[in-house]
């Protein structure tokens, strides 16, 4: 009974992973998938289409402990490496985390299903779907993976949504995240801000400064949205945000950097409507004498 349930789950997972493109495999013997095989782990290598760019060591260790206690419940999916000379080498389509966990346990072999009649598109899609269904990918990794599907395989947002079980709006909003400021994307990747924060920042001025405010003030997505809404209700949205974040005009910042390098001491410029003062910081009287000499010369 348990074996039948396992097989049913495996078939369902296989259908989801490979989709319609590979579900119509020929009934010819040479084209059938090879199931329940035991392959040498050393004969298997990762998939270049794997969307995950980072594998958490602790997560792999937890998975390894689970496999050690319960065994490998789900075989990995592989295909034959066409560049291999002896035809006994394989590439992972889905299951790289399981493969890494088994390697960490010094296992010599692993259960696998060899999939035939695959394409680069189906391989990429399978790798993405497996990770997305397990919620293992970061927001940026998922967005980059979908972006590759649209660019490399001309897939529409509706097609990706249908294949992954996500809504079309989710796919569209996720892809928009790629247009964020690089610093904001770094904070997102480090999980210092959430997808909700990132989405709210998409049309905001001074994205990075706002993102740092979110982190510093521990703002919720709702608080950030309220802040941006308050600013948008006024005609001075950019000025309001600058004032809130204590931002300086870009030209003033450039002057500060130039003078700091020229003098060798940190220089601050306080400016308001073209009027203000210049502040040169020193740590002791000796430095003050040096600064005065610089001005005298």
Proportion of β residues? 5-15%
What is the CATH third-level topology name of the largest domain? Conserved hypothetical protein from pyrococcus furiosus pfu- 392566-001, ParB domain
Looking across the biggest beta sheet, what order are the strands in?
1-5-3-4-2
CATH level-1 class of the largest domain: Alpha Beta
For the termini, the CA-CA separation is: 92 Å
Percent helix, as a range, is: 40-55%
Total beta strand runs: 7
Number of domains: 4
Structural class: alpha/beta
Mind telling me which CATH architecture of the largest domain this is? Alpha-Beta Complex
- CATH homologous superfamily descriptor of the largest domain: Conserved hypothetical protein from pyrococcus furiosus pfu- 392566-001, ParB domain
- Ranges where pLDDT stays below 50 over 5 or more residues in a row are 1-13, 16-29
């Amino acid at each position: 009974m348990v074996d039948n349930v396992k097989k049913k789950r495996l078939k369902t997972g296989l259908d989801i992973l490979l989709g319609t493109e590979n579900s119509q495999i020929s009934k010819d013997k040479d084209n059938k998938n090879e199931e329940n095989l035991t392959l040498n782990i050393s004969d298997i290598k990762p998939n270049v289409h794997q969307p995950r760019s980072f594998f958490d060591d602790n997560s792999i260790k937890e998975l390894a402990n689970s496999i050690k206690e319960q065994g490998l419940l789900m075989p990995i999916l592989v295909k034959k490496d066409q560049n291999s000379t002896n035809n006994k080498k394989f590439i992972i389509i889905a299951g790289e985390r399981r493969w890494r966990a088994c390697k960490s346990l010094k296992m010599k072999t692993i259960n696998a299903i060899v999939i035939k009649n695959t394409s680069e598109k189906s391989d990429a899609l399978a790798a993405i779907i497996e990770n997305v269904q397990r919620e293992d990918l970061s927001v940026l990794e998922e967005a980059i993976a979908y972006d590759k599907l649209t660019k490399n395989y001309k897939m529409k947002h509706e097609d990706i949504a249908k294949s992954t079980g996500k809504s079309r709006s989710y796919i569209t909003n996720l892809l928009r995240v790629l247009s964020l400021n690089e610093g904001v994307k770094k904070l997102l990747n480090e999980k210092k801000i959430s997808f909700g924060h990132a989405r709210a920042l998409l049309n905001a001025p001074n994205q990075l400064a706002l993102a740092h405010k979110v982190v510093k003030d521990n703002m919720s997505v709702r608080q950030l949205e309220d802040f941006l809404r308050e600013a948008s209700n006024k005609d001075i949205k950019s000025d309001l945000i600058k004032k809130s974040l204590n931002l300086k005009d870009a030209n003033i910042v450039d002057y500060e950097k130039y003078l700091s390098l020229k003098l060798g001491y940190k220089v601050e410029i306080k400016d308001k409507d073209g009027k203000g003062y210049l502040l040169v910081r020193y740590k002791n009287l000796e430095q003050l004498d040096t600064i005065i000499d610089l001005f005298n010369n």
